[in-house]
Structures are given as structure tokens and as C-alpha cells.
Amino acid sequence: MTRAWQCIGLFFALIAIGAQGVRWLRVLQREHYEPEALSRFFIRWAI
Q1: Distance, CA of 28 to chain centre
Q2: What is the pLDDT of residue 29?
Q3: Which of 2, 7, 42, 5 is CA-nearest to residue 23?
Q4: pLDDT tens-digit profile of 1-47?
Q5: Which of 15, 16, 29, 30 has its CB 3.0 to 4.6 Å from that of 37, i.e. a possible disulfide?
Q6: Distant-in-sequence, close-in-space partners of 1: CB < 8 Å, separation ≥ 6
Q7: What is the pLDDT of residues 3-12, one digit of tens each?
Q8: Which residue, 14, 37, 12, is CA-closest to 26?
Q9: How many domains does the chain fold into?
């Protein structure tokens, strides 16, 4: 595997991790207003 492909793979992995982080932040903000939102999030992602 060439260095370029490794860089491309790392780039997309970082984007995926960032997107998941943004999703967590949105859930935590919503949980501040809706206490049951966080439990719904955990149930959805645990299955």
C-alpha cells in the first residue's frame, strides 16, 4: 500500500470520527433539554 492511500484512509477515518463526535455533541445538547434523549441514543447505538 502506498503512502498516498494510507493518507487518504487516515483522512476519511478522521472525518468519520469527527462526524461521530458532532453527533454526540448534538445528543448531549438535546439531553440537556430532554433527559430521555440520551437513553434513546444509547439504545439505538447499542443494538
Answers
A1: 12
A2: 77
A3: 42
A4: 699 999 999 999 999 999 988 888 887 777 666 667 677 777 777 76
A5: 30
A6: none
A7: 999 999 999 9
A8: 37
A9: 1
Q: Of 18, 24, 20, which Cα lies nearest the Cα of 38?
A: 24
Which amino acid type is present at position 3? R
Distance CA 31, CA 20 (A): 16
* Amino acid at position 46, single letter: A
Domain that holds residue 28: 3-46
Beta strand residue intervals within the chain, DSSP E: none
Distance CA 11, CA 8 (A): 5
> What cell was used for 10?
487516515
Count of helix runs (H) and strand runs (E) in the chain: 2, 0
